[in-house]
Amino acid sequence: MHLYAATFLWISCLLPSQVDLLNNGLARTPPMGWLAWERFRCDIDCKDDPDNCISEKLFRTMGDLLVKEGYKDVGYEYVNIDDCWLTHSRNAKNQLEADPTRFPSGIKNLSSYIHNLGLKLGIYEDFGTKTCAGYPGILFQMDTDAQTFADWGVDMLKLDGCNVPTELMPYGYPEMGRALNRTNRPIMYSCSWPAYLAGGPKLPDYQAIAQSCNLWRNYDDIQDSWDSLKGIIDFYGDDKGNFSMFAGPGAWNDPDMLIIGNYGLSYDQQRVQMAMWAIMASPLLMGNDLRHIAPESKAILQNKNVIAINQDPMGKMGKRVIKNNDIQVWTRPVMPTGSYAFTIVNYGVYGTPAKLNYKLSDMGISGSKSYLITEVFDGSKIGVHTTSDVVTYSVNPTGVFMGKAVPQ
Ligand code: GLA
Question: Where does the Alpha galactosidase A C-terminal domain start and stop, copy by copy (predicted)?
Fold first, then answer.
């Protein structure tokens, strides 16, 4: 049957009353972990590149390092497979199978290994006929595949949106959420649904997305560069469709992986990404090589003060409140009650730190007469200030100042 005719038939079987929510109790704070794609891509050459190919060995190694190198202790928990783990066809029972040469023990064994480390395993699929890299997708097989993932002990699914018309997404993404629920295994659900609508004529229906998904990619893939990072920050700052308001416990906007520890960002630019992912309440999924990482990158990724802002239990996503040439300011309400985190980002390349004067009230911070301001990365005290005091902040070229203001 033609794809469109078949999907029409399938959609007409989905009753409009089936609006039960994902409601799986997961992702009360943004998920933290590691995801293969940005750094390891679709390297399937285990013969010539055995240490870097997409294989069970890679995921075991990264799981081991999350534990051994202290990442687990600060909250990184998920070890996530991305594209290119599958065989090119389903088995005789129509089930998905991992490539047997690269995953000789199978995904169920890999999940046991990861669970024994006290971690969780994530997997990747695509709502369409094929994944973005051309492996079998899940269209028309949702219950079978959800059950396969549950039987394997999978804890998270990233569902991509290649090779399927975007008009089907409002039906297909919620339906896969229901299929995951029907397995009775709690599986965190990451949807790429709005990313495929970005830049198009229609804004995504964020309310429906937030009801069906624990996290969702809104925008383009991150690449290993400052330009890519800036493009993402600007997209989230523009907040078209007001998607920031749909973030909260159980539901998060996902600006894609952390590229800290890779090739493309300077030290200051890596701090920008960490601070901005914290202010945006973004999932912290590292796309790097934990075997080869500079100590200063590791320190940024493991900074407990910044992670605490990211994981703030209120789960309010920050917003850009000032945009002025190269400078932008973002704020986010955090605990204790009445407090705020803020970031001042400098895109400028004028080779000396920018000295920037702001009152707390300029940054949208009000409600109390005075606040204790601290710098978040190192916890140093800036001072106690009223909302109308002018405070000078020094921000490095392509760098960030991250602050916290607590009512006194
Ligand atoms: C898309 C996604 C990426 C990655 C690749 C895999 O581009 O947005 O994050 O999953 O597919 O092919």
Answer: 315-399
Q: What does the pLDDT read at residue 23?
A: 85
Going from N- to C-terminal start, the domains of the chain cover 32-311, 319-407
**Of 322, 261, 309, the residue nearest 282 (C-alpha):** 309
Which of 151, 221, 224, 268 is flagged as catalytic?
221
Ligand 1 atom with the shortest distance to the CA of 257: 9
- The CATH number of the structural domain formed by 319-407 is 2.60.40.1180
Cβ atoms of residues 179 and 101 within 8 Å = no
**Ligand 1 pocket: which residues have CB below 6 Å?**
37, 82-83, 131-133, 160, 192, 221
Taking only the tens place, the pLDDT of each residue in 345-379 is 999 999 999 999 999 999 999 999 999 999 999 99
The alpha carbon of 53 and the centre of ligand 1 are apart by a number of angstroms equal to: 16
Q: In the annotation, is 160 catalytic?
A: yes
Q: How many CB atoms lie within 10 A of CB 388?
A: 12
Fold of 32-311: TIM Barrel (3.20.20)
pLDDT digit string, tens, across residues 107-165 = 999 999 999 999 999 999 999 999 999 999 999 999 999 999 999 999 999 999 999 99
